[in-house]
Amino acid sequence: MTLLSSDTKGVFAISVTPFDDQGAIDFDSLDRATDFYLEKGSTGITVLGMMGEAPKMVQSEAVTIAERVIKRANGAPIVVGVSAPGLAAVAELSKKAMDLGAAGVMIAPPGNLKTNEQIIAYYGNACEAAGAGVPVVLQDFPHTTGVNISTDTLNTILAQNEQIVMLKHEDWPGLEKVTAVREAEKGGRRPISILCGNGALFLPEAMARGANGAMTGFAYIEMLRDVVAYAEKGDIDRAQDIYDAYLPLVCYEQQPGLGLAVRKYVLQKRGVIASEAMRKPGKGLTAAAKAEVDRIIARQEKRLKELG
């Protein structure tokens, strides 16, 4: 079992959770999605993230999904989202995930945290709940959680909790935070891995600032793989050219409340999942929106051929 570390880099696809039209988990599609992510170049997979509709599941379903993907991935590192309002749920799912062979767990802050002191205390307690030595990914996604973690607070949390080995960076605007975290390392704070979410928005810029890769569910893993690879080689111009071909779809996904519907529609079009269905509350795209996505993808494919 490969555990996450501060040296982890590459692409971790945030997996969708496929459902049938009645809202039951479609495990055949989940298997295909796992294979798809890895075949297209994902270093690992993250399950039960916010885009995996984790809040819509009971604990037993979450455990079953984690087990299924870990077994299917055949040794590739799997991160399990264990975010929950209460620490007891974090502790229970963390233990089960790690016993199943997860590479680490991801924890976002609950929305009731209002002060820096509360945020710092929470992550100390959350790391304890996850279990000694369990690698933790800190998900910094204020636009969804409502919790704004300042750079100073973040650096304090990282200094106090060595098992936090990775930052899932989703603050927006947040490029200055990437720079500040790296500057703190130059000042003596231990290094961590930084993987970027937010649907890959600003990925080339974040890589140039010192990020180590991407952790997001954008349906074209090929883009994430290639942008990260070229950026790591120092060829930011080539990374940007590839990224720009996909940028209209990246931007379209940023519409509030629409991103997951777009993602599932694209994955269904690509033959990965059988249905674009989401669990209620949640609905798919209208016919007009699907036509817009189809047009964006057609232009994307044309541009990629031009780029070679």
TrEMBL record:
Keywords: Lyase. One of its GO terms (cellular component) is cytosol. One of its GO terms (molecular function) is 4-hydroxy-tetrahydrodipicolinate synthase activity. It comes from the Bacteria. InterPro entries: Aldolase_TIM, DapA-like. Gene3D superfamilies: Aldolase class I. Pyruvate binds at residue 215. The keyword Lyase applies. PANTHER family: 4-HYDROXY-2-OXOGLUTARATE ALDOLASE, MITOCHONDRIAL, DIHYDRODIPICOLINATE SYNTHASE. Belongs to the DapA family. This is 4-hydroxy-tetrahydrodipicolinate synthase. The lineage of its organism: Bacteria, Pseudomonadati, Pseudomonadota, Alphaproteobacteria, Hyphomicrobiales.
